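Complex record, two chains
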Amino acid sequence: MNEYLYPVIFGIATGTLARILMLRTDYRQYPTYLHGKIVHVALGFIAAALGTLAVPSILEQEFTAVTFLTIAASQFREVRNMERNTLEQLDHFELVPRGNTYIEGIAIAFESRNYLVIFTSLISTLVYVLLNFWAALVAATAAIILSKTFMSGGRLKDIVDIEYVEPRFEGAGLYVDNIYIMNIGLPERQKEVLKYGMGFILKPKNFDARTTIANLGQRQAILHDISTALGVYRDSGTPALVPLAKRDLNDGRMGIFVLPQDRDIDKAIRVIANVPILENAIRMPTEKNKQDKKEEMNDNGA
Amino acid sequence: MVLEKYILAAVTTNPRKVPSGSAVFHCESREEMEQIAKNLEAILDGIAHLLSEDLYIIVSH
């Protein structure tokens, strides 16, 4: 037994706990299999061990030992690839696919959670070694809470107002408000669409939001989330019954057309409001304007 | 090769209006036209689009 035994055990335990807490199975239904969970908990355990062991090696002045963290980095990049590949393969069999932007977001989250585990373990072990167990417990709790807050990104309700609109036909053209969605020719299909279809208008709150929700990946994510939460009136070989999101070119509003099985307007609005804003979809054209202004001022000053 | 968008067939009651180069179904009445368009939509996994009162096209998307 040496002086590092308890800190190391404590660090590994908190790190693994952090990974388990971050591993939620929610409406996105992923990962649901026990095997899938075990893969991630096991990797979380390895990450926790890596983060923990960095502390004794530094304190013992074994600086070369820290280089194994680089191995960890490449290892967890593999996690991202693994998640991406799996989800991309499965996406072909979804009635309403997630889309690559959403998948990439999920894959990045899986990678970064392992780094958060390393961070949690490192902090708790360090505090344990330097101070005592109780201080380490406080530090570990703080680190886990911090990881949790890091993990949750923005939601769609932060950037858009959502409004329900009954879809309608003008001739064969399907409209949500004044936004043209698609041409559905058969009267029978039109009846189905009016019976099961729901339309929503997303009104961007500012100029940045306009560009963000216009992203095709973001739109697909919205359609996928609604279809997951409310079911979808669709089967293979019925391309006419596909949920679609189209944009009003004049003011950037988004017309969402979906065919849910559960036609609950309030629930649908809640689901749309909670769709994550995909990191890869975020655009901030107004930041560019600010930057230009700053440069202008600097130029004038010089 | 995968075709992104392609006119698979045209269904019409007006023979003068059909595009050349695709499969055309001539129909006697509007009901017949709708019936054939509906069947073709199911068979071809396409969408039946109504271009004008007497012309449907089945398009794969």
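Note: Helices of chain B lie at 30-44.
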